[in-house]
Design goal:
With about 325 residues, the chain is an alpha/beta fold. About 30% of the residues lie in helices and about 20% in strands. It contains nine helices and 15 strands. An eleven-stranded mixed β-sheet has the order 1-8-2-3-7-4-6-5-9-10-11, with helices on both faces. Strand 9 and strand 10 form a beta hairpin. The chain is globular, with a radius of gyration of 19 Å. Bound molecules: threonylcarbamoyladenylate and magnesium ion (MG). The site of magnesium ion has 3 residues, from loops. Magnesium ion binds next to loops.
């Protein structure tokens, strides 16, 4: 299959209308979308990504009114998030209605919904005329794509179209919040933080998967975000003494000023860290780096989301 890379919203939307799948930009990471009401098209996403069938998709909307076509009821918990934080890098989970197929929900009775803040994304969804079910546009298991080139490297020849847009400003996936009860539960941390949600809700929980129990957000059980290189998390310069490694095939990302690494990214702040982490992992793999050292950050605010991705990359 030939992969068309285009800036034309119209051309890309035509593929969706024809029952095909299209990779598209958002402010978080690139997504791989299909018409949410077209099971045949949805199946193609799982094939292209080599994604396990029990891992549900996020449904992307361009207009609040579209939510009604997806869920049984919008409760107060969801209403507050929609009012205060949509459009934005946040996904809500609600009980799905019967029209939504189990392919989208991964066999669950719930559905995840997000309205991206990137205007280009919303224009694209508008042009498609339907909400788009879309996971991140990477091969399953590899780091999420933060530029159209990452998508191309993973999926060239496996999908018919990539809508070309800017590099992703956030760089990590959206915050996923379970709104099925009236108290919100964070299933996946993101740039919209626990502290941000605590400004809206008196009580916010963070879901902690317990081993042996089926996780609430199936995506959490898969190895994710992982480069091919070995990832080691460090706190300070002294930590390097614990490891045997060659600087000339190792890399570092973090706040420390260090010398001699083959690849090195000094970040300015947490936003910069989040924006660069997946791109850095991919570049390290291209350059056949063997060990990537990542500096730990304190686990609050955006730091919680960064540590969530780093821990997953290091656990393998
Ligand atoms: O920022 C994002 O969320 C990006 C862009 C493309 O929007 N999308 C993304 O999709 O990261 P994906 O498939 O890579 O991650 C979706 C996550 C998975 O962890 C999945 O298990 C969870 O959302 N999820 C989807 N539907 C769910 C549901 N009904 N209940 C609980 N978790 C759900
Ligand atoms: Mg993903």
């Amino acid at each position: 299959m030939k992969t068309l890379v285009t800036k034309s919203i119209k051309k890309a939307a035509q593929f969706i209308k024809d029952g095909e799948i299209v990779a598209f930009p958002t402010e978080t990471v690139y997504g791989l979308g299909a018409n949410v009401f077209d099971d045949k098209a949805i199946k193609k996403i799982f094939v292209a990504k080599k994604r396990p069938l029990d891992n549900p998709l996020i449904v992307h909307i361009s207009n609040i009114d579209q939510i009604e076509s997806l869920v049984k009821k919008v409760n107060d918990c969801a209403k507050k998030i929609i009012e205060k934080l949509f459009p934005g890098p946040i996904t809500i989970v609600l009980e799905k209605n019967d029209v939504i197929s189990e392919l989208v929900s991964g066999g669950l009775n719930t559905i995840a919904i997000r309205m991206p803040s990137l205007e280009l994304t919303r224009k694209f969804i508008d042009e498609c005329g339907v909400p788009l079910a879309a996971p991140s546009a990477n091969l399953s298991g590899s780091p999420s794509p933060t530029s159209w080139r990452h998508v191309y490297n993973d999926l060239n020849g496996r999908i018919p179209c990539i809508l070309k847009g800017p590099e992703c400003d956030v760089g990590i996936e959206s915050t996923v919040v379970d709104c099925t009860k009236n108290k919100p539960v964070i299933l996946r941390p993101g740039i919209i933080s626990l502290e941000d949600l605590q400004k809206i809700f008196a009580d916010v929980k963070i879901y902690k998967p317990r081993k042996l129990i089926k996780p609430k957000s199936p995506g959490m059980k898969y190895r994710h975000y992982a480069p091919k290189a070995k990832v080691i998390l460090i706190n300070s310069e002294e930590d390097f003494l614990k490891y045997k490694f060659e600087k000339n095939n190792s890399a570092f990302i973090g706040f420390l000023k260090l010398k001699g690494f083959k690849k090195f990214k000094r970040v300015n702040d947490l936003r910069d860290y989040a924006r660069n982490i997946f791109n850095f992992f991919r570049k390290c793999d291209e350059e056949k780096i063997e060990t990537i050292f990542c500096q730990r950050v304190p686990e609050f605010g955006l730091g919680l989301a960064i540590m969530n991705r780093l821990n997953k990359a290091a656990q393998s």
